[in-house]
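Anyone able to model this chain together with magnesium ion?
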Amino acid sequence: MADLNDRCPSGINGLDELMEGGFPRGRTILVSGSCGTGKSTFGIQFLYNGIVMHNEPGILVTMEQTAEDLKKDMLKLGFDIEGEEKSGNLIILDRKRVIPEVDGLSDIVTDSMAKIKPKRMVIDSLGAINFLMGEGEKIRSELLTLSERIKNAGITTVLVSERQEGEEAISAHGIESYILDGVVILTIHPALDTRKMEIRKMRGTKHTLRMLDFDFTENGIEIVGGSGPKEGHKKVII
Ligand SMILES: Nc1ncnc2c1ncn2[C@@H]1O[C@H](COP(=O)(O)OP(=O)(O)OP(=O)(O)O)[C@@H](O)[C@H]1O
Ligand SMILES: [Mg+2]
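re: yes, here you go
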């Protein structure tokens, strides 16, 4: 059983101090948001900073973008994921590698786990897995097998899931909510010209419930001070 006092720093500047120093280690956190809210960046930043700041190897399962596109996009935010892949600290499994193994999603990830002994994992995204591999009982059982293996290995995992704008329910695509130890929701607020992050749930953790402003910077995403409007922006009541 993971020790709840053992925290896994999120890699997001300004976030850990609002949740007892990080995610509970060895647990699974759902990062949910509509399109373009920053879910993939959140996940990759968690992995990349885990490697460079804490020497914790990671696995990225990316079903949306190809590994090549992702490497280019993330380099712009300062994350040299290709470099870390070459150094053997990161394994990237994109859809070209995963899809031929539809029946063995859990096995292909387990093989990589044996190679790299990861401390962190990102699965991006549940919706893309369902879209590309079907939503049936088979994929559901693959995901459940995988989540048990991840848990047994004590890996802290970020699961990415899409959510329709304004939708109240948090879609976990058939993943039982008991598996999720944390839920972080990302939203875009065009009227305020801000992005917001909300820690909806984080088991065993005293955390803020405030809607946190965050921004893209040259070091990825970071929480910006206070919950009010940005300087130069008028407060708009919506
Ligand atoms: N350097 C940057 N500066 C400002 N905004 C950026 C920058 N890089 C990316 N963005 C914003 O972040 C969005 C993409 O972030 P990301 O891919 O992490 O989001 P996502 O929620 O995973 O999106 P998707 O729904 O496509 O999977 C872009 O659409 C853009 O709005
Ligand atoms: Mg994405």
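The longest helix spans residues 39-54.
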